[in-house]
Amino acid sequence: MSKKEKVLDAILSQGMLPLFFYEDAEVSLEIIRTMYNAGVRVIEYTNRGIEALSNLYSIKQRVSVDMPGLYLGIGTIKTGLEAEAFVDAGADFIVSPIIDSEVALVANNYDLLYIPGCMTPTEIHVAQQYNTRLIKIFPANILGPAFISSIRELFPGQLFIPTGGVELEAANIAEWFRAGVCAVGMGSKLISRNVLDNRLYSQLYNDTLKALELVQLSK
Questions:
Q1: What average pLDDT does range 168-197 have in this prediction?
Q2: Model's pTM, two decimal places?
Q3: Which of 158, 81, 151, 164 is nearest to 127 (CA)?
Q4: Cα–Cα distance between 161 and 183 in angstroms, integer?
Q5: Contacts 24+ apart (CB under 8 A), 170-174
């Protein structure tokens, strides 16, 4: 099984893709370690600051030793140059807020899972031209579960993951899965700035357990 297939299987099994960025590499590592200890095996680290590249590189060195079986991808990738740099730093998969042919080409060249962001049926159609198994619906808080319900029959077999605004609440998560998603992206509603700035690792551990449980109940 290729890494692309293994990462996709991990996302589908987990039913949730946690995502975050923080300027401090050591805090970022502890956030990842906390979620790993709670049972998470696939995480998206986002390219939201100048430290992202060096942080990912150093974190991956530790993850490979301390956290076996964890896939760590990079998000917010918008150019082929960014994709190349983060793949060189060890990214296991690539997530974008948009569709970009150069990013898709880099992912394909390295046989990595590419998850582009889409907001319209036309964008979904374009993304499918790059054989994208999993498409990110973004921003999910604007589109809502009804969007998935409305378009999923137009794209039979396509896997969707909403990101942006998914709440850490049973009703909200269940509504997304009823609409037809295969997993949910969990960003600031799980890993808030307060958790990051104040190193609230125990709170994050408990919230991660709750999120994983809610997802499994909703799938």
A1: 97
A2: 0.96
A3: 158
A4: 5
A5: 170/214, 170/217, 170/218, 173/211, 173/214, 173/215, 173/218, 174/214, 174/217, 174/218
> Which residues in 92-124 are b (16+ Cβ under 10 Å) and which e?
bbbbbbbbbeebbebbeebebbbbbbbbeeebb
Question: Prior bond to 139 cis, omega within 30?
Answer: yes
Using the predicted structure, report yes or no on whether residue 68 has a pLDDT greater than 90: yes
| Length of the chain (residues) | 219
Residue 15's contacts (CB-CB under 8 Å, 6 or more residues apart) are 182, 183, 184, 212, 215, 216, 218, 219
Q: Write the DSSP string, 125-177.
A: HHHHTTT-SEEEE-SHHHH-HHHHHHHGGGSTT-EEEE-SS--SSHHHHHHHH
User: Residue 54: CB partners within 8 Å, gap ≥ 6?
Assistant: 25
Q: Which residue carries 């730093």 as its tokens?
A: 89
Nearest 5°: the CA angle 145, 177, 167 is 65
Place of tokens 């680290």: 45
CATH number of 3-209, picked from 3.20.20.70, 3.40.1350.10, 1.10.260.40, 3.40.50.720: 3.20.20.70
Instruction: Name the token pair of 130.
Output: 């790059």
Q: What does the pLDDT read at residue 182?
A: 97
